[in-house]
Amino acid sequence: MSVKRWGDYLLALRAIFRRDMIMYFRYPVNVVFNIFEPFVWMLPVYFLARSFMVGGENLGFEAYSGTTDFISFWIIGGIMSFYINSVMWGMGFSLKNEMWLGVIETNWLTSAPVLVQLIGRSLWGLALTTFNGSMALLIAWKLFGFSFGGQIVPALLTMVPMLIGLYGLGFGLAAVVLISNDANNVIDISSFIIRTFSGQEFPVTVLPRILMTFSLILPVTYAFDAVRGYLIGTKTLLPMTQEQLILLAVMALFVSVGYAVFRRVERSVRTAGNLGHH
């Protein structure tokens, strides 16, 4: 592929990002809401956690996780789950919006490949997620005593294969959206299952054996586990090096399989002529 072609793709990504950013800032209430949103969802959990403390520590929680700091455990899971939602809604629901507006077919006739368009739709969501996560960390640090003294760089590097793998999952979800009349439920159920059973809010070891087996199948579980291990020193399910290797392997698998599924479904709906008939 020529350098010019790559340049065209980057320009397309930039245009999609800029369009989404402009549409977002058209409504100032959205900006205000996103500034205060982290405080709103953190406050009830903070007081609930305090109500179960004994001598300022969550002793029962420590038996499962290796730390008494439930708030830090929960905040890290919440911020990582933001990215799961961002990719799923950014790639899946944006297709449904284009179907409703009746522009999906014309957009896909442009010179920008569908892959570039799908990734581009999620970029603004990732930027907004990073902003929300930063606000959550600031609020938690100033008001709720959140702190971590672990290894930040390895934790961030652990999130990279998770994000790339989520894009593969996003391709598969976009394929489901193309053949489904109810994208909201598809995305809601998928993201809820992944976030809940990956241990967003609790150690997966508290689950019954059958449900914990399902959790251990989900690769995102190891991302949550390893990042917490690096940042706040929790007990990990496996050695962190092994968890990172699992994430790398799953990243390659999800991207290749997810994109292959999406291309096959896309060709099917194009052939049937019902790409935008939802």
In short:
The protein has eleven helices and no strands. The protein is an all-alpha fold. The chain has one domain (3-272).
Blueprint (SSEs and pairs):
Layout: H1 3-25, H2 28-51, H3 59-65, H4 70-101, H5 104-108, H6 114-143, H7 152-179, H8 183-197, H9 209-217, H10 220-232, H11 240-272
Helix pairs in contact: 1-6, 2-6, 4-6, 4-7, 4-8, 4-10, 7-10, 7-11, 10-11
Describe the structure.
The chain is an all-alpha fold and 278 residues long. The protein has helices spanning 3-25, 28-51, 59-65, 70-101, 104-108, 114-143, 152-179, 183-197, 209-217, 220-232, 240-272. The longest helix is centred in the C-terminal third of the chain and has 33 residues, at 240-272. The mean pLDDT is 79.
Task: State the shape.
Answer: globular
Low-confidence segments, given as residue ranges, are: none
C-alpha Rg, in Å? Answer: 20 Å
Count every beta strand, where a strand is a DSSP E run of 2 or more residues: 0
Quickly list its features.
79% helix; 278 residues; mainly alpha
